[in-house]
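agent> Task received from the user: take the single chain below, predict its 3D structure, and emit structure tokens. No templates, no multimer pairing.
agent> Plan: (1) validate residues, (2) run structure prediction, (3) serialize to tokens, (4) report one or two observations.
agent> Step 1 OK, no nonstandard residues flagged.
tool_call: predict_structure(input=
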Amino acid sequence: MTKDDEFSVPDGVGPHEERELEMLLAGSKPLAMFSDEKAWGFDFGEVRFDKHVESGELVKASEMGEPGKDGIALRRVYYARPEAAWRIPVLQALIREPYPRDADEAAAVEELTGKLLGYSDQEIQAFLRWRGCSQERLQPGK
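)
tool_result: status=success, residues=142
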């Protein structure tokens, strides 16, 4: 997998980019998460989301992650529907767990992350296949 392939998502694997706000407001997505690092200059439209936080339609949380081996710390911003605000601390706890994880644990974390973010089971399974995560432990009855 090349670096470009790492960011090229195949068909059937989300992502919800460019649609998160619309999906949150429509109730079809309970939680959105954005990561940013100042050197990237990434702008996901925080001002647009914050208008809905001010009106009470959405809840917001943000945090700075610990710097990685490269010394860069990511800022994470979370937006949730008020009734789904409980998902924010759950996702934060998952993200804070140290890596590396074994393949089964990584797959379980990716699966739970996808569920928290509102991806369908089909999208989550497609993502796990794309990432090469073990499927055996995720099959019903296993």
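agent> Step 4: summary for the user.
Residues 107 and 131 are 9 Å apart (CA to CA).
agent> Done.
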